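Question:
When you can, review this sequence-structure pair and walk me through the tokens.
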Amino acid sequence: MDSLLSLLTHYALPFILVLSVVVFAHEFGHYWVARRCGIRVVSFSIGFGRPLFGWTDSHGTHWQIAWLPMGGYVKMFGDADPASTPDASVKEMTEEEKKVSFFHQSVEKRFATVAAGPLANYVFAIVVLAVLFVFQGQPFSSPVISGVQENSVAAHAGIVPGDKFLFIDSHRIDRFEDIKRLIALNVGSPVTVRLEKDGIQRTLTLTPEVVTQKDRFGGEHPLGRIGVVSDRLEYKKWSPVEALGHAAVETWTLTTDTLRGVGQMIMGTRGADEIGGPLRIAEMSGHVAQDGAWALLWFMAVISINLGLINLFPVPLLDGGHLFFFVIEKLFRRPLHEKAQEIGFKIGLALIGSLMLFATWNDLVHLEVISKIQKMLS
């Protein structure tokens, strides 16, 4: 009984909290724009399945909390299901009903309503990160070098622990991540670096070593490296206005890093076992929650960014798939044929289902559930 209570407290509750908050932000984006476009919202649900409790507001929207906290949805007037499949009644609606039906709105209004979900996730993440940067400070790796690899470019140039990078060429260095990025881009090309130690500045010219990474298709990707490391984590507090700017930059960086990681998985330079599902998120939520409220807020922001980004992928059933169909409709001045949309949704369902199964398998392997089952059967 105690172990079950501990599991619930340490993992289930933080997971439900994190997922419910980011899902609410996403769905509220849909809801808020839909209402301003004159679209009637029938229901707003956090979770799937049978409702635990709910209420109906003055606009006729039924708000509910459902028993399965694995997502949520906003159902518009004229939708047959939460995926916004048009109901059969859309062809028989009166003129008054058409005015508030999602299906009968202009492409621009439908596009805005659908795009508002992922956009809301990004806005939520920027606000959360800005709050963190104001009260806790923005974490970053110091550009002060803590270690130099033997026989590396940096070692031969005379760079030693304690040296602080100020500039690489004309680029100002604020974080160690700036050093890694700029050096990686300069494959075999000389760079001028300005360093400081004990108040004394000096300038060096380095030619990064070329290291090659191979993908699963045999393609080679050259990167520059000089052989320096930094392990000094610092926090810098910003004013509210500065924090918003830095939060936006951090959100963009997290987005591009995620896309780069996906690309590396596709090319084979990164293992697909990093893909995690609900169990992995639950595990991470539990561990992060034990580190305190600030860490949990940071984790929420990261999950919100990932939820917004994934939903922008042009896969039917996701928001990006709907947006793709709207673009086609705008370009050809007519909706994509119903049969084509139906095939697209089936393909999307298969892709998402396969991804969820793969992610769940990775979770079970990561949590050593598979190995334990094998031991029991052997």
Remarks:
- Residues 62 and 329 are 31 Å apart (CA to CA).
- The chain has two domains: 105-137+237-378, 140-235.
- The chain is about 50% helix and 20% strand.
